[in-house]
Amino acid sequence: MISTLHIKNIGIIDDLNIDLNQGLNVLTGETGAGKTLIIDSLEIISGGRFSKEMIRKGETNSFVEVCMYEPNSEDAIDGNIIVSREINLNGKNMCKINGRMATVSELKNFMSKYIEIHGQNDNQCLLDNKFHLNYLDEYIGEEILDIKNKYKEKYERYLEIKRDLKANYGDEKERERKLDLLKYQVKEIEEAKLKTNEEDLLEEKRKKMLNSEKISNNLQEADIAIAENSIDSLNIAIRALEKIENIDNEYGKISNNLKSIYYELQEISRDISGLKDNVYFDEEERNETEQRLDLIYSLKRKYGNDIKEIIQYKNEIQEEIEHIENLDEYNNKLKKELKELKVEMTKLAEQINKLRNINGKKLSNSINEVLEQLEMKNAKINIHIDYKEEFFENGRDEVEFYIRTNLGEDEKQLSKIASGGEMSRIMLAIKKVLADTDKIPVLVFDEIDTGISGKAANSVAEKLNGISKNHQVLCISHLPSIAAIADFNYFISKKICEERTSTNVKLLDEDEIIREIARISSGEINDATIKYAMQLRNKRVS
pTM value? Predict the structure, then answer.
């Protein structure tokens, strides 16, 4: 249950602490005093949406903190759970669960186990058919729990096998598609007949082709310079030195050095001549080179950054092909187990379906009885249970609540037909029927009495009182019959201090409760209304 709610800087709420109690807590008070802001704060701490306009004027942030006492919860520390959320004008959120930082999504999931809020526009659980199945199974109780646990155990193995088969290409069509793709890739790479250094050689050749004219011209120029000029000049110099080499040894040395240079230049000249002959490329050779490089580039885009990686990829997929082709025995074993599981799960799912069908009618009737007491006499809930071919986490059923709100009309999905006020009373009816099995400890009803009076109001009060025996209930109300039935009454008022309005909450004593019931019964407090209030209050005791 919520033991303390702390709200700061939300709307006209300045800094407010509310100590709440087990049982039925009813909040009444002046119009515009901040009752709805208290519910809004509970929605915020439950991970709901927040608008920056809700931050109190002149302040930079809002803060909500709730302390819950849940001694049997694994989330509690010494029986307590402390959750807080701070929101700043810049949009920054800071959420904490028992001092640990959390995201808004984590906060929402966490608080959904502890608080359920039902207002004019907040009955989201009724709009989601996943909750419809939960309501029905809660109603059935222990009778379905053991079967569901057996089913879930097999369902988890069922999913595991499906995952394994998918990873192992256990699906025949998928496996054939994969094998075809891998074999095509191997064939494409093998037909290319790649060589490790081939790309570099082709790039070099291509570069020469693109610059063949420039290369030819410069080689020609170098050849002429060496063959016709340098070699002839050296030859003349050598002959001149040979005529005097006997006079001094130094002349002989120079002559020999020049001869060495002469022979080297002749070798270089022959090399250049050979290069000149190799510069020419015909058009066909050019095209072959370009096509080969295009093929390599295409394979690189698909299979690797270079030829070495492409060849490595080919080796890997050849191993994968061999692996896939040898998976038959293992996959056949998994498929056999899967087939057996389906048979076992179907039997359990049929048992679950049978229980749901039997109890779905009972639950529908029980809810309709309560709806009649809540002055929705023509409304009829009908729980549809559709048995599907597919296996789900909780069986093979899709469960959805349908409703007919008026005589002569067709029933439709609950989410598409009921108004806000009707939704609140429908949720109250469901909660009343499920009061003994519902696991959520705190239920909040925001103005559930809107648009009702008289007998319906008395019935709503009775149902809230019944629910509060197993839950902590918070309820904003304008009806004396609901205020009279409360275990704890809180009066919400507003005060003005230094030209600022702020909300105030007071836990009323018995005399104050009588006066508040008298006030909301007719707007005046006099002997007649006091007497009426005492009569209503005495009914609670009786």
Answer: 0.63
The pairing of beta strand 412-413 with beta strand 395-404? antiparallel
pLDDT per residue as tens digits for the range 485-509: 999 999 999 888 877 888 999 999 9
Structure confidence by residue, pLDDT tens digits, 504-539:
999 999 999 999 999 988 888 888 999 989 998 888
Distance CA 125, CA 477 (A): 22
Looking at domain 1-114+440-542, its CATH superfamily turns out to be: P-loop containing nucleotide triphosphate hydrolases (3.40.50.300)
Structure tokens at 30: 């002046």
Cα 272 to Cα 367: distance, rounded to the nearest angstrom: 104
What whole-number distance in Å separates Cα of residue 6 and Cα of residue 17? Answer: 5
Q: Which residues contact 332 (CB under 8 A, 6 or more apart)?
A: none
CATH 3.40.50.300 domain locations along the chain: 1-114+440-542
Give dist(CA 338, CA 162) in Å, integer: 8
Residue 166 CB coordination number (10 Å)? 11
Helices (H) and strands (E) in the chain, counts: 18, 15
**Rg value, the chain, Cα:** 44
* DSSP per-residue letters across 73-113: -TT-BTTEEEEEEEEETT--EEEEETTEEE-HHHHHHHHTT
Q: Where are the alpha helices (DSSP H) in 1-80?
A: 35-45
DSSP H or E segment with residue 389: strand 380-392
The conformational region for residue 432 under phi > 0 = left, psi -120 to 50 = alpha, else beta, is alpha
